[in-house]
Specification:
4 helices, three-stranded antiparallel sheet, elongated, about 190 residues
Length: about 190
Amino acid sequence: MASVDTAYQPGEGQGDHAEAEDGYRRRDFLSIAAVSFGGVGAAGVLVPLVAQMAPSADVLAQSTTELDLSAIQPGQAVKASFRKQPLFVRNLTPSEIADADKVAVSTLRDPQTLEQRTREGHKNWLITLGVCTHLGCVPLGAGEGESRGEFGGYFCPCHGSAYDTAGRIRKGPAPKNLEVPPYKFTSPTTVLVG
């Protein structure tokens, strides 16, 4: 029987090690390339998806509304439009302000004072979105001769929600007061909504 020489010979097996190292390098490169390609593909899908959720140009153009208040008499309300929604602007009389101030805030479903719903120095100007907070109907009370409901503010004919002179919910299914949009006075008779 012949003996097998198992002694290590210099230079033996280095080719196997070098081939294995090259295999790892190729495999690593392929893995990195596949992940990179997948990332670029995901970005290619996500960018248009996120971009389509941005407001369109016509909505951005209507993002602010400027109103001249000089023609609105005390006790009168007008309808305007803000971001394709009705906007109610009311010039409150001193008696309407007094009626709103004498209501105990703790008795309200959505407690807010008239001061919280108007701007300092302009307590007589109530500016709200004309959308009922129940199911989105347009309440009555801003137009000439429309019913203002039993609290003298606005009345929603869809399900009977009644708002007071401060646009606060007083009766009916609406859960919240009429929303006050962001606005500021740019002059004593001009307001910028949005």
